[in-house]
Design goal:
mainly alpha, 10 helices, elongated
């Protein structure tokens, strides 16, 4: 049987025409794979747009809940706020706004005098910022100090160094802790550091009062 000739006409790019013919021939012979590929591509694109829409929906709805939590907290409707916090945790556990909800949960506990050092772990594991975590670490140290667990206070404060914004504040707490433990000389050395390093009169005054 005579093979079909490539249709060539005058003033046509032969190389381009040949490539078109070869592609057509390939598609004709492999139409099953081609159709499967198109279907897979369609499914992939559909999944991507569905995921994007779903993610946007989660962000929008969880942000509304955070707004309601804030409003309830400001009005001191703590029970209502806690119910909303529970709702956002259950319905939108992967939303970044859950971090904000957890923070409000801690604030409510603080208002009620029920916050504990371990409660702060709930927020710290969700926070990626080292600076924010440093502040939470210091607060955890303060809670140990308040509970008269001075050894734990010093252990918790140890990683906070001059890289962090709250270094002077943490040093001040360390000075108070050492004084409570009867380590007067060490406490004095720490307060001298505070006096030298602090840019703020508040910490300088505290240091002077305890030298």
């Amino acid at each position: 049987m005579e093979k079909k000739k490539v249709p060539i006409e005058k003033d046509v790019d032969v190389e381009f025409e040949y490539k078109v013919y070869m592609i057509y021939d390939f598609l004709k012979k492999n139409k099953g794979f081609v159709i499967t590929g198109i279907v897979l591509l369609f499914l992939l694109l559909s999944s991507f747009f569905f995921y994007k829409h779903h993610k946007e929906t989660i962000l929008n709805q969880s942000s509304v809940l955070v707004y309601q939590i804030q409003k309830a907290y400001d009005q001191k409707e703590f029970e209502k706020a806690e119910n909303l916090i529970k709702k956002i945790k259950e319905k939108y556990p992967d939303s970044p706004f859950v971090k904000v909800a957890v923070a409000y949960s801690l604030l409510i506990k603080k208002e009620n005098g029920k916050i504990t050092p371990s409660d702060l772990n709930l927020l710290q594991v969700r926070v990626n910022s080292e600076q924010i975590n440093s502040g939470l670490t210091e607060f955890r140290g303060y809670l140990y100090y308040k509970n008269k667990e001075y050894g734990k206070t010093l252990t918790v404060l140890r990683p906070i160094d001059q890289r962090f914004y709250n270094y002077v504040s943490a040093l001040t707490l360390k000075g108070f802790t050492l004084r409570k433990m009867g380590e007067i000389e060490k406490s004095t050395n720490v307060f001298n550091q505070v006096l030298q390093l602090s840019k703020y009169d508040y910490f300088k005054l505290l240091a002077k009062e305890n030298l």
